[in-house]
Amino acid sequence: MNHTKDITNVIVVGKSGAGKQPRIDVLVEEFNLEQLSTGDIFRSYLSKFNKYSFEGNLDIFWDEAAQRFLQDDAVAEKLGTRDPDIILGMKAKYFVDKGLFVPDYITNALFESAFAKKNYRGQILDGYPRTVEQAQFLLGLIEHQRSTLDFILLVDNTDERIIERTVKRRICPKCGRVYHLDYKPPINGRCICGTRVIQRSDDTKEKIISRLNEFKEKTLPGLQLLKDQGIPVVEVPGHLEEFTPENVRRSVMDAVTTLFA
User: Checking phi first, is residue 186 left (phi over 0); if not, alpha (psi -120 to 50) or beta?
Assistant: First the structure.
């Protein structure tokens, strides 16, 4: 493969629990890219708002009759700041605190702000886009910024393997290390840092099945839209009989190489 080829942006997509992260790590190393994760974006903007220490009720920023936020000028006046990152963080927190689905227009705004800070280049998009609306927004953004999406890496895995793998996943609440009760068990239930590992609240079978259904109903149609616009898709297995870093790297690079043959 010609490693001198410029790779501008890549999308990595797959069911939750399919095994995306090891494949992302390969692309980061091979193409000198950064990972731009939706989860990290949300945490970053929520953190910025939380550090601002606003103590009022967020309902004051919401127009119930119009079912939308007030105009940003009105939000800034009530919030006491015009910092766009803090305003975006507030909007995300409004939905998160109520346990509501964050609408596409808010997710799009958060993503665009984070992507702009990277000059719309050199990124592996992880967790975005997840819907047709987000895919449409991304295509328009890429065109407007004269950037490109080079390819989509689809990490495939069966629902059965994902459920089995995820319900036995354990994480360290302190350092974030990930364990598996069968393949990478913690010693006496504890992380190497000494903290007792836990099961994430959304790693139950019921919630995993819900995420799998959401992928099929919302993410796959968005993926099809991107394919229809000519963005190539390469597929790699999320399950390898012998899971080693070298086998993961070979699996990813063999698939990607076909694009530039």
Answer: beta
pLDDT digits (tens, 9 = 90+) for 142-158: 999 999 999 999 999 99
Residue 69: φ, ψ to 5°: -75, 155
Contacts by residues 167-175 (CB-CB < 8 Å, ≥ 24 positions apart): 167/199, 167/203, 167/204, 167/205, 167/208, 169/17, 169/199, 169/200, 169/203, 170/197, 170/198, 170/199, 171/197, 171/198, 171/199, 171/200, 172/197, 172/198, 173/197, 173/198
Task: Give pTM, 2 decimals.
Answer: 0.88
Q: What is the pLDDT of residues 22-61, one digit of tens each?
A: 999 999 999 999 999 998 999 999 999 999 999 999 999 9
Question: Measured in Å, how far apart are the chain's first and last C-alpha atoms?
Answer: 7
Q: How many residues are given for the chain?
A: 261
DSSP 216: I
Residues 6+ apart with CB under 8 A from 206: none
Give 195's DSSP letter: P
Report the 10 Å Cβ neighbour count for 19: 22
Helix, strand, coil % over all residues of the chain, rounded to 5: 50, 15, 35
| CA angle at 94 for the pair 93 and 100, rounded to the nearest 5° | 100
Cα 216 to the center of its chain, rounded Å: 16
85: its two tokens: 């990152």
From CA 90, how far away is CA 80, in angstroms rounded?
A: 12
d(CA 223, CA 92): 24
